[in-house]
Structure to design on (736 residues):
């Protein structure tokens, strides 16, 4: 059968901070939900179903929090799904919500993702030692730093590329009124002077821990047609998973990411991603992951992603702006970070990205990854119908 | 219009405590192998995978990531996970097939309830600001619900015991059941109250388990089994979490899901009722006629592996279509305190 068309009707997000002690969890998600529904110009009777995503429940200490959040989500009396696919969850939640529309099951779906990291300490919630699993050690940074070191060696990348990404993303974040870290004064020298946390990753090359939420309203073709100024049409979605560890696994350039990207380009009718995509919001929690994902996604040949960064191609105003919103490097409410990528991509093709709008953006990618670089979820949205 | 059918179902032995890890791999490996043997499919035939499990039950983050080691997920797979009973994973997989992106899907759920003190773990599903700090446990909340129904005259201890007696007696014929006993309601009522007004027979056992269901687009399903269980209605709803804000003797979400799913004329129903009185609530809200055979497997009172128990209800009901013993069946799954969230699937033979 032919799939139904689906579109982003509107998006919303909270102001992100290290500790949003001014709101409860229901208050936090409602801030994003209310903005998304206003942006989409819909009211509660228009919403057929709700899909919530977030990362491990241990981060807030609530088991399946969507249950106690049902009223705040406006879900009571309606279908409510809860997705959890590790750090990629914000992306996969967006994709599950999209499938509820493309399948023809629902006409309008509200999707929400959040994390209130200040309720606990995520780094230590991840640093557990379950039997028969490789321990993560000192949180995500300790896990991923060797991958970055391996990338630098394999790609023969200059050591300063990570700092270039950090400066770019933090300056971009300064243009985003919702970003957690807004650092217009940051310099290449100040990043290079910051403390090394996990060699080769410096403090200024890591994402913050944020409290925050993101929400989107997705709709069918008729709903998309009614969006003033144009909806963001979903051209393709892709999800792929591989195991955390096995002999011969490439953790630097994972097969699951390559496969997901290949499926996305195939289904979206893209033959040359670098030439055809106008802007991408990639999940870059440590600055070095920008060149790594540029290669994994097929925007650059293997070993050459850092050259796009170094040449300024990925800056706002460059040929392929990456994370004009500031990305995960500026805002990281873990479970919501992937949905923020999807929502920011949608904002770009809707022309609603404000001071960090990419001129003439017609096709944009939202990307998320999770676990040990083993869960990938991504979507391709366009200003035109697919 | 695309339609989707269940083509296979297997489950791990339902037991009080397994010796395996909390990531389910030891339970899933043989259960997946059996599902492939049953259907003649192999992992490379599966277009989409979806699972249901809980980090809190396992006491660790990312249980489901370890669980994919049971699949051997390389080359990489198209996969998703819900932090819910796997009945909702089945719903996600059903939607995925309806999009036309894939023709087949494998859904699994697993849970090792024995890893912690289950009734206390489930308290953490409650509002963390004003309810959970009081630590009302899952059995106490169900006890309040049972008491409200008894005092309002909606059901009696006798009716509850009859549900349990029928379930435990039926379970005698189910080799996967954890608890089975040919017993009468009168005998059960002679036994002591453990959480007033609940007796042991009113409360589902604590179970470690896992189950697997395979779905296929109906055209494809006919190539796999002679009589696929075609899904003709699939709906779910959630109610308010406020225990004082809804009538605990009713289940609006079950009623709405059942109506939308179109359960008229079913011959058999597998209801996910972890407490005896909850079966009475569910049967009433679903409007099941007197002749409808309820829980021939013994239901949740015979075995209740969390996060696969709802999926198992769907699998059990589907197998009654596949084996030719029924023409139209209904399956139900629940989640959350006091039947907060409910799902209904209706399946028919062709």
């Amino acid at each position: 059968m032919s799939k139904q068309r689906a579109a982003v009707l509107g998006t919303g997000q909270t102001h992100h901070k290290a500790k949003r002690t001014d709101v409860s969890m229901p208050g936090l998600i409602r801030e994003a939900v209310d903005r998304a529904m206003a942006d989409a110009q819909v009211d509660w009777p228009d919403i057929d179903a709700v899909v919530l995503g977030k990362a491990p429940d241990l981060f807030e200490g609530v088991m399946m929090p969507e249950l106690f959040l049902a009223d705040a989500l406006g879900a009571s009396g309606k279908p409510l799904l809860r997705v959890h696919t590790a750090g990629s969850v914000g992306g996969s939640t967006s994709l599950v919500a999209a499938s509820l529309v493309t399948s023809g099951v629902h006409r309008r779906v509200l999707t929400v993702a959040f994390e209130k990291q200040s309720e606990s300490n995520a780094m230590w919630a991840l640093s557990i030692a379950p039997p028969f699993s490789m321990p993560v050690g000192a949180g995500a940074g300790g896990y991923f730093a060797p991958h970055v070191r391996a990338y630098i060696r394999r790609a023969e990348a200059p050591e300063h590329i990570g700092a270039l990404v950090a400066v770019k993303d933090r300056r971009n974040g300064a243009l985003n009124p919702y970003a957690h870290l807004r650092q217009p004064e940051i310099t290449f020298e100040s990043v290079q002077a910051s403390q090394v946390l996990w060699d080769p990753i410096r403090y200024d090359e890591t994402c913050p821990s944020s409290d925050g939420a993101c929400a989107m309203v997705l709709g069918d073709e008729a709903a998309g047609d009614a969006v003033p100024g144009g909806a963001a049409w979903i051209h393709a979605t892709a999800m792929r998973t591989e195991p955390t560890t096995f002999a011969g696994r490439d953790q630097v350039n994972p097969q699951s990411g390559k496969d997901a990207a290949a499926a996305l380009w195939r289904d979206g009718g893209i033959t040359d991603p670098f030439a055809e995509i106008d802007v991408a919001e990639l999940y870059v929690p440590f600055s070095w992951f920008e060149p790594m994902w540029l290669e994994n996604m097929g925007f650059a040949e293997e070993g050459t992603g850092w050259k796009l960064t170094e040449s300024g191609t990925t800056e706002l105003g460059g040929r392929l702006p990456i994370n004009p919103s500031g990305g995960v490097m500026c805002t990281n409410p873990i479970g919501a970070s992937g949905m923020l990528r999807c929502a920011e991509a949608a904002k770009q093709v809707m022309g609603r990205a404000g001071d960090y709008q990419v001129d003439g953006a017609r096709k944009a990618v939202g990307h998320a990854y999770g676990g040990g670089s083993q869960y990938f979820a991504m979507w391709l949205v366009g200003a035109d119908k697919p | 219009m695309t339609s989707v059918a269940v083509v296979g179902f297997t489950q791990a032995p339902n037991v009080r405590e397994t010796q395996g890890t909390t990531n389910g791999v030891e339970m899933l490996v043989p259960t997946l192998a059996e599902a492939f043997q049953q259907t003649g499919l192999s992992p490379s035939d599966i277009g989409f995978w979806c699972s249901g499990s809980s980090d809190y039950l396992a006491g660790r983050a990312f249980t489901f990531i370890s669980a994919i080691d049971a699949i051997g997920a390389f080359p990489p797979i198209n996969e998703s996970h819900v932090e819910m009973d796997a009945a909702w994973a089945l719903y996600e997989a059903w939607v995925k097939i309806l999009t036309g992106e894939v023709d087949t899907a494998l859904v699994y759920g697993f849970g090792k309830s024995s890893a912690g003190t289950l009734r206390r773990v489930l308290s953490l599903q409650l509002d963390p600001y004003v309810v959970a700090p009081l630590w009302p446990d899952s059995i106490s909340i169900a006890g309040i619900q049972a008491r409200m129904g008894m005092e309002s005259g909606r059901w009696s201890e006798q009716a509850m015991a009859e549900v349990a007696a029928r379930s435990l007696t039926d379970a005698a014929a189910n080799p996967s059941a954890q608890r089975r006993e040919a017993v009468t309601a009168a005998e059960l009522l002679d036994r002591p109250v453990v959480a007033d007004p609940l007796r042991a027979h009113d409360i589902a056992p604590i179970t470690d388990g896992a189950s697997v269901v395979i779905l296929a687009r109906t055209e494809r399903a006919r190539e796999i089994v002679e009589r696929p269980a075609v899904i003709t209605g699939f709906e779910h709803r959630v109610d308010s979490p406020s225990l004082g804000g809804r009538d605990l003797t009713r289940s609006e979400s079950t009623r709405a899901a059942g109506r939308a799913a179109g359960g008229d004329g079913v011959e058999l129903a597998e209801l996910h009722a972890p407490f005896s009185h909850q079966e009475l609530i569910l049967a009433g809200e679903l409007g099941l006629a007197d002749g409808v055979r309820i829980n021939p497997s013994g239901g949740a009172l015979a075995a209740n592996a969390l996060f696969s128990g709802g999926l198992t209800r769907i699998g059990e009901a589907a197998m009654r279509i596949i084996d030719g013993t029924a023409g139209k069946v209904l399956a139900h799954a629940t989640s959350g305190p006091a039947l907060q969230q409910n799902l209904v699937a209706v399946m028919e033979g062709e």
